[in-house]
Every structure is written in structure tokens, then in C-alpha cells.
TrEMBL record, chain A:
Membrane topology: Multi-pass membrane protein
Main localization of the protein described in the UniProt heading: membrane
GO cellular component, one term: plasma membrane
Signal peptide region: none
Lineage: Archaea, Methanobacteriati, Methanobacteriota, Stenosarchaea group, Halobacteria
Protein name listed in UniProt: Polysulfide reductase NrfD
Organism of derivation: Halobiforma nitratireducens JCM 10879
Keywords noted in UniProt: Cell membrane, Membrane, Transmembrane, Transmembrane helix
Positions of transmembrane segments: 20-43, 63-85, 97-116, 136-156, 168-189, 201-220, 241-261, 285-304, 311-334, 354-375
Entry-linked InterPro entries: Electron_transfer_protein, NrfD-like
Keyword Transmembrane in annotation: yes
Subcellular location: Cell membrane
Family: Belongs to the NrfD family.
Automatic annotation (TrEMBL), chain B:
Domain 4Fe-4S ferredoxin-type: 30-60, 75-106, 107-136
Pfam families referenced in this protein's UniProt entry, alphabetically: Fer4_11
Keyword annotations of the record: 4Fe-4S, Iron, Iron-sulfur, Metal-binding
Record-annotated membrane-spanning stretches: none
PROSITE patterns assigned to the protein according to its UniProt record, in alphabetical order: 4FE4S_FER_1 (PS00198), 4FE4S_FER_2 (PS51379)
Protein name in UniProt: Oxidoreductase iron-sulfur subunit
């Protein structure tokens, strides 16, 4: 155990040596694949994707929803708990959380930008804005949110502490944005999106995925650097984050179960048919395997049992939750579109099928690579283990000291 | 010789007198009524529309719903011509973040391709599948040097040279669509497009192409705000239906005289089951 460590617990990533280079190489490969996808998409148009007039939103939209809600969830579920409500337990995660929120939001915005058919028209979001459109409000809220995140990170980096007003903005803006996302989907012609239930479902699962991401990142970082977690950090992962994840998984499992039961038994034909198609039709294999079993049930079992709620157990649960949520976002986005609206012989009827093309997958990989790149860059440039300044030296703080690590610089 | 006015002539006269304003600042409420008993389902509207608007393969502004019911030999068949309903309360326009879809002249739901960002939210919101996405550049094989059958058919480039088309001419250029500000003579990938009641023809005092093509006079088109219009005459006589009325979109394409050619043996007042 000769690893040099930061005072706050995590080994320094630079010590990872070869592992770090392998990681950077993987990001570079992801970027190359992603750029190939983007260039092909721009040259050929949406013909290179699997979408059509009946299923206009595919995996690029669901990936955007995945990333945007990850960011939303980190800010609501972790950063705000410390920054706004003063929960000291979460303070060691604040700076890392803000950086993760920035990286995920940036990746999401990049993917949805690429998915647009005509980016040149974007100036009209300002010139001829339509405040009656939930889509317009979502863009406004996520822009405010991004500014708040950058401001918060800047304040944390410069002063070692954020301002309550900025933290509050970084809590309210993503709630507004995440629920507006639910309003976008909440159209009566596509009842699968569950109308008023949609925003609540999206915000709940946002927090679930956000907590999973921050837990996974904290653990993976220490593993990449080849070190072991010190006691305080281990307790944070297994006790605080592990149990938090378990609570969220429990609520989500019950919520999703009700969502499915209500959907399957609905008298509304489009609602019932969409649920039957997603749960028992062609997409059912991945909806059940990834979305439900591996994404909810297995991780819940892992963190609910104290024996498996170890560092590795929480890591496995977190990664499974992330994989599961990625599948669930696709399930959610497609579910509203699988029931055909018109019995037109030139269109698909009664169900609409969609499968992503390689080009779309490449853009998804770009999103993941950009997220990884931004986070890694932030990790290498800034000291993320700095605990926010206010009231840090109280006995309940898990880390014994804040600054002045033995090998800083 | 007595002067004979066809339905088309009457409607054309009405259209010529319309005072349309490109910003929708007019007192015109354009409506189309489709007489289902006159419609034979020939599809001339669909073909005319595709020609008029140079539509790409797989895109149809004018289409149809076909429903069959019952078990053979007792089968019903219903054919309903469809097009954009130009909804009074248009969900496509209310959801559009850049106001690229808006209420234009005569209450037509217009689309400005310059303002469109290609987010496809209108397609999610339209209950009728009437918004169409251009997935690629128009006529992508316009400049190809490859023949469908080698040494059997001409390549598109050879064909252009043979008929004397300027090599740099944009593909799918339609000079008819140069009339208004809001239609483009060609089109671009990535944006959506929809039926506009052939606004470029209306601006020239012509009827929408599908109305003109219909050999059975099944499409009646005109201003709902003109009490003497043909549209009002028909709507006053019949109780119109609209598609998916429950969505509250208030379509301006209405259907009259729902065709039901069948009959069934009526009961004779005898006690029924459960009586």
C-alpha cells in the first residue's frame, strides 16, 4: 500500500500510469468512431439513421435524455443536498458532482445537437422563440442550468465554496428542465408517455441514475489508480451512497411496476397496446433483461443485502443501474411511438418498428467519449477532492483534513 | 348556348377573389370538405399532389386511410382520403420551439424551412402523421454516373445532357413554388415539410392540385368565413365529421356523407336476449 494519496482519500489518478494511458486511448478511439458517425450523418442526412416519419425520435434522443437526466439527477440528488441543504456527508462529492453534471450535460447537448436535422436554424430559438412550446422552455432551462453549473464550479475552484444563490439555481433549474422534459413527452396522442406521471418518473429516475454515476465514478477512479479506498471514503460509498441507491431503487421498482400495471390494464387502446408491445413484443428482451432485471432488480438485491453492499457490490450495482437506465430511456422514448397513429397502407400498422443504425450507435459512442474526456480532463486539471469550505472542520466531516496533502503539486 | 359552370369553376372564382395575407393577417378561413360518397378512391389526388410538390419517394402529403372490418364474406371496406388537417388548434405549431410552424394565410398551418431546426417535435405532436421529414437531399441520384443497368439504361447525367438540362440546375426545382415567401422551389434534407393546401397555387388564383385533380368533385374547397361559399353550402347541409375529434385540434379538413353501403336485417320487436 505504497500508493500516495490525497488527504481526502482518493489516490491520485496520475499514479495510474499505464492504466491512465489505456483509458485515454479508449477515449480517443471513441472520439474517432463518433466523429465518423457525425460526418456521415451530416453528409448523408437522417437517411443514415433508423428513424422515419412514424418513429422520428430514436436512440439519439434517448441518449440525450439519458445524459441530461444524469446531470439533473446528480445536481438534485447529491450536489444540492450539500450545497443547498448543508448535508455534510455529501460535501466530499460536491465538486466532483458539479464536474460530472457539466460533463454529462455537455455530452447530452452534443448528442441532441447532432440529432437535429437543420442546426443552421438554431438562431431562431432567439429570433422567433415560441414560449408556448415546452421544447423551447427545456432549452432555456438547460441553458440556465449549464451556466449555473459552470458558475458553481468556478466558485468552488476559486473560493473553495459556492454561493447559496448559485447552488439554489443549480437545484431549481434542473428540476424545471427535467420536468419540462416530461411535459414535452406528455402529449395526449401518445399516452405511453404517461401524461402527468411522466415528469415525476423522469425526475425520480434522474436522481437514481445520478447517484449511480457518482458512486461508480468514485469507485472506478480509485481502482484505476490501483489504490484502495480509505475507511472514510469506503463508508461514504457503501453506507451513504449504497443505501441511498437502495432507497431510490426500491421507490423506482414500485413506481415502474405501477406504471406497467396501469398501462397494461388501461382501457385506452393506445396505452395498453404500447405497454404490451414494449413488455411482451419484439423489444421485450432488452426491456426485461437490461431495463428491469439487470437495471433494477439485481442492483436492488446487491445493495439491499449488507453482505453484498461492499465497494465492489456498490460498483456493480451502480454500473448495472447505468446500463439499465440507458435501456429504459430508449424504452421510454420508443414506447410513445410504437403504436401507429393512422391506418394508412403506405405506413406501418398497427405497430411501428425502429432499430438504430451503426451511425446512430457511433454518435452515442461520441457522447460517451466526450463525457469521459471532459470528466478526465477536469479530474486531471482540478483537485476534485477539495471539500467546500464552510464549516468543514467539524468532527462529523468524514475526511480529517481538507488541504495540505503530502504530495500536492 | 347556356353557360355551364362546373364545381371547379365556381370554387376557382371564389379562390381568385380571396384576399390572402402572407402573415395570416386576413379574414379568410380556408377549409376543405371531402364528400365520401363521391370519392371513388382512385388516388388521383395523391398522384397529383406528388407531381405538384415534387415529392420524394416515401413522402405523401395526400394519402388515405383504409379500414376493412368483418369476416369474409361479410366484409366492409372504408376509404378515407387524408391530408394535413390545417388544424385550428395545431399541436405541431404550438410545440414548435422556433415558430417555424405557424398560422399563415387563410389559416393554413405554414412551415418555414429556414426557421426549422429539424427537432421533429411536430412529428411527435401531430395526431395524423401528416408532417414529413426529408431524410436526404432531393433526388440524390440526380448527378449519378451510374446506370441502373450497365449499358442498358442511361445514367442520370447522360439523361440530363440528352434533354438539355443545365448541369448545375438544382435537383427537383419547381418554379411553381417560387410564388410565396414561405415555399421553396427545392427542398433541403433534415427539415420537415407538410401540405399547405398548395398555397403557391392559391396565390395565383388556382385551386389546390388535389381538388383540381379529383375527377368526382369529391373535394370542396373554399372560405368558411364567406357565407356564400361552396364549402359553407355543403357544411350547412350535412353534419361534418373530422378525424380524431377527441384530440380537440379542430381540423379544417372535414368529411361529409360517410359512405355506408351495407344494411342489415332489422329486428321485428321480438323479445331479445335478456328481455
Amino acid at each position: 500500500m505504497s500508493q500516495s494519496t490525497h488527504s481526502s482519500g482518493l489516490p491520485d489518478i496520475e499514479d495510474g500510469g499505464k492504466r491512465l494511458y489505456a483509458w485515454l486511448a479508449a477515449i480517443a478511439i471513441g472520439l474517432v468512431i463518433g466523429l465518423y458517425g457525425v460526418v456521415t450523418l451530416f453528409l448523408e442526412g437522417t437517411i443514415a439513421t433508423g428513424i422515419d416519419s412514424q418513429a422520428p425520435w430514436g436512440i439519439l434522443i434517448s441518449t440525450y435524455v439519458f445524459f441530461a437526466l444524469l446531470s439533473t439527477g446528480i445536481c438534485i440528488g447529491v450536489v444540492a443536498l450539500a450545497g443547498v441543504f448543508g448535508l455534510k456527508k455529501y460535501e466530499p462529492l460536491v465538486k466532483r458532482g458539479v464536474l460530472l453534471a457539466i460533463a454529462t450535460l455537455a455530452a447530452g447537448l452534443l448528442v441532441i445537437f447532432v440529432s437535429l436535422g437543420h442546426q443552421q436554424g438554431m438562431i431562431h430559438l432567439l429570433l422567433s422563440a415560441n414560449p408556448g412550446s415546452p421544447m423551447w422552455w427545456m432549452i432555456v432551462f438547460y441553458t440556465i442550468y449549464m451556466v449555473a453549473l459552470l458558475a458553481e464550479f468556478y466558485l468552488l475552484e476559486r473560493n473553495g465554496a459556492s454561493k447559496l444563490s448559485v447552488s439554489l439555481l443549480a437545484l431549481l433549474a434542473p428540476i424545471a428542465a427535467g420536468t419540462t422534459l416530461g411535459a414535452i413527452f406528455g402529449t395526449s396522442i401518445r399516452p405511453y408517455y404517461a401524461d402527468v406521471f411522466g415528469p415525476v418518473y423522469l425526475v425520480l429516475t434522474a436522481v437514481l441514475s445520478g447517484v449511480a454515476l457518482i458512486a461508480a465514478v468514485v469507485i472506478v477512479e480509485s481502482k484505476l489508480a490501483g489504490g484502495t479506498l480509505e475507511d472514510a471514503r469506503q463508508e461514504l460509498v457503501t453506507e451513504t451512497l449504497g443505501k441511498y441507491l437502495g432507497l431510490l431503487l426500491g421507490i423506482t421498482i414500485v413506481t415502474v411496476a405501477w406504471k406497467y400495471i396501469m398501462g397494461l390494464t388501461a382501457t385506452n387502446n393506445a396505452m395498453a397496446a404500447a405497454h404490451e408491445y414494449m413488455l411482451f413484443g419484439p423489444p421485450s428482451w432488452w426491456v426485461w433483461t437490461f431495463g428491469i432485471v439487470l437495471g433494477l432488480v439485481v442492483p436492488f438485491a446487491l445493495v439491499a443485502t449488507s453482505r453484498t453492499r461492499s465497494v465492489n457490490g456498490v460498483l456493480a450495482a451502480s454500473v448495472l443501474v447505468l446500463v439499465g437506465m440507458f435501456a429504459s430511456r430508449l424504452e421510454y422514448v420508443l414506447g410513445g411511438q410504437v403504436v401507429s397513429l393512422t391506418q394508412d397502407p403506405s405506413l406501418q400498422w398497427p405497430f411501428v418498428s425502429y432499430s438504430p443504425t451503426g451511425i446512430e450507435i457511433a454518435v452515442v459512442i461520441l457522447g460517451i467519449a466526450v463525457f469521459a474526456l471532459l470528466y478526465t480532463a477536469g479530474r486531471l486539471l482540478f483537485d476534485l477532492d477539495e471539500v467546500p469550505d464552510h464549516d468543514v472542520k467539524t468532527p462529523s466531516t468524514p475526511s480529517p483534513a481538507v488541504t495540505g496533502g503530502d504530495d500536492d503539486d | 348556348m347556356t353557360e355551364h359552370h362546373s364545381l371547379d369553376d365556381e370554387m376557382r372564382t371564389e379562390v381568385e377573389q380571396l384576399q390572402l395575407d402572407e402573415n395570416g393577417d386576413d379574414d379568410v378561413d380556408l377549409n376543405m370538405v371531402i364528400d365520401l360518397q363521391s370519392c371513388t378512391g382512385c388516388g388521383a389526388c395523391n398522384i397529383g399532389c406528388a407531381q405538384e410538390n415534387n415529392l420524394q419517394e416515401g413522402v405523401a402529403f395526400s394519402s388515405r386511410i383504409v379500414e376493412t372490418d368483418g369476416q369474409f364474406p361479410n366484409v366492409s371496406y372504408e376509404y378515407t382520403p387524408t391530408l394535413c388537417n390545417q388544424c385550428e388548434d395545431a399541436p405541431c405549431a404550438s410545440g414548435c420551439p422556433t415558430s417555424a410552424l405557424y398560422e399563415g394565410e387563410g389559416g393554413i398551418t405554414m412551415h418555414d424551412p429556414d426557421q426549422c431546426i429539424g427537432c421533429k417535435y411536430c412529428m411527435i405532436n401531430c395526431p395524423y402523421d401528416e408532417i414529413h421529414l426529408h431524410k436526404e437531399d432531393p433526388h440524390p441520384r440526380w448527378d449519378d454516373d451510374e446506370a441502373v443497368i450497365d449499358e442498358g439504361t442511361a445514367t442520370p447525367t447522360e439523361l440530363k445532357a440528352e434533354v438539355g438540362v443545365d448541369g448545375d440546375a438544382p435537383a427537383y426545382y419547381n418554379p411553381n413554388r417560387e410564388v410565396g415567401e414561405h415555399e421553396h422551389p427545392t427542398r433541403f434534407k433534415g427539415v420537415v415539410e407538410k401540405c399547405t393546401f398548395c398555397v403557391h397555387r392559391l396565390n395565383k388564383g388556382e385551386l389546390p392540385r388535389c381538388v383540381e385533380e379529383c375527377p368526382c368533385d369529391a373535394r370542396i374547397f373554399g372560405d368558411r368565413n364567406d357565407p356564400d361559399s361552396k364549402v359553407n353550402e355543403i357544411l350547412g347541409r350535412y353534419n361534418p365529421d373530422v378525424l380524431k375529434e377527441e384530440e380537440g385540434t379542430e381540423p379544417k379538413v372535414k368529411y361529409v356523407r360517410d359512405y355506408n353501403g351495407g344494411s342489415y336485417e332489422r329486428g321485428k320487436g321480438e323479445p331479445a336476449l335478456g328481455d
